[in-house]
Amino acid sequence: MAFEVRFLETSRGVRIAFSVAGNGPPIVVLPPWTSHLVGERALSGHQLFHDLLTEAHTVVRFDRWGTGLSDRDRSDFAPERDQEVLGELADHLGLRRFALMGPSHGGPEAITYAARQPRRVSHLVLIGSRASALSDGPTWTALRELILANWPVAARSLAAVLAKGGDPDDLETVVEVFTMSVTPETAVALQDGAIRDPLPDLFSKVAVPTLVLHRRGDELVSADEAAQLAARIPGARLEIVDGSAHAYTVGDVAALAVRIRAFTSGAHRSPSARMSSREAEVLALAAEGCSNAEIAARLLISVRTVERHLLNAYIKLGVRGRTQAISWWLRHEVGNRTA
After folding, report:
1. Are 22 and 59 in contact (CB under 8 A)?
2. Could you report the average pLDDT of every consecutive run of 10 residues in the chain (339 residues)?
3. Pick from 24, 214, 188: nearest CA to 125
4. Strand, helix or coil at 265?
5. What is 6-265's CATH superfamily?
6. Rg (Cα) of the chain, in Å, rounded?
7. Topology of 277-338 in CATH?
8. What does the DSSP assignment read for 71-124?
9. By C-alpha distance, which of 239, 236, 285, 314 is closest to 56?
10. CA 37 → CA 16, 75, 150, 222, distances in Å?
11. Domain-wise residue ranges, the chain
């Protein structure tokens, strides 16, 4: 996946760092609480997640104003300013219509924009999000004090939840991303702004296809909270997957990417979508009981390529993994040949 950081100067004179990669219909990924376009690349699942997403989409990512490589000088922390940045970036890139992905803290922002701009948003994807600010009340009061008193210690406490279930190095990487991407003063100001200006009651006005995707063991946002969020958005699709990391680029990222691509492509409504000849060949060997290594050896391709073909097959068939894909193959392909 090619990577290049570019900059947009907004109408307020703010420089926003962004990146564009891939081909296909655009999907804009909102930053969570804080972000750093370069630092996040060290997370264990970052490359695979975005590689899978860029196979089907032009992926746009950017650093929130006040964080990462974007201008750090920010005094107005109203969520409306973030809405402005999103709109101006879409205009700058000529995106007339795009899918919108809101992970964690970016979820409420994504909901607000989708409700207010239904003609611009084709699909809404929410990951690890809930209907209100991710932390408030006594929990936020204590965490706020810790952030301002000792940001590295607070960052480590947060990283233990965000990277749970990831690779051993992910915890340290999340700590580094936090401390390099934002000052403690800006971190608390962003959260204070979200609490002071709670998400407007726009849920019922969201009129675009919506996927609420959630990891079952997420300790920051519970599965029940994800279900409540999905229930408030008309026609929203709720999918709970295994895993415990809150950060979407940690843990089993392929499971998330597969579901996002299936949703935005409509494959979940078209289980008979055609596969390429190579994808069908790989799936046929899997149905015969071959391991990925055995398939790679027989077809003279890498194991990584085998995995990629299988993931593409899952997406096109609208299934959730190897077992379901093989079952589909045996019913539709082998069954038709022997009938």
Report:
1. yes
2. 86 97 94 94 93 92 97 94 96 95 94 93 94 75 94 93 90 94 95 76 89 93 91 90 93 90 68 66 89 91 91 80 86 55
3. 214
4. helix
5. Alpha/Beta hydrolase fold, catalytic domain (3.40.50.1820)
6. 21
7. Arc Repressor Mutant, subunit A (1.10.10)
8. --------HHHHHHHHHHHHHHTT-SSEEEEEETTHHHHHHHHHHH-TTTEEEE
9. 314
10. 11, 22, 24, 27
11. 6-265, 277-338
Two structure tokens written together for 23: 């081909």
pTM reported for the whole predicted model: 0.79
What length is written for the chain?
339
CA atoms within 13 Å, Cβ hemisphere of 34: 30
Q: How many C-beta atoms surround the C-beta of residue 251 within 10 A?
A: 27
The tokens describing 310, both together, are: 């299988």
Instruction: Please name which of 194, 158, 192 lies closest in space to residue 177, comparing C-alpha atoms.
Output: 158
Sheet architecture: strand order including 98-103: 6-9, 15-22, 58-62, 26-29, 98-103, 121-127, 210-215, 237-241
Instruction: Say how far apart CA 155 and CA 148 lie, in whole Å.
Output: 11
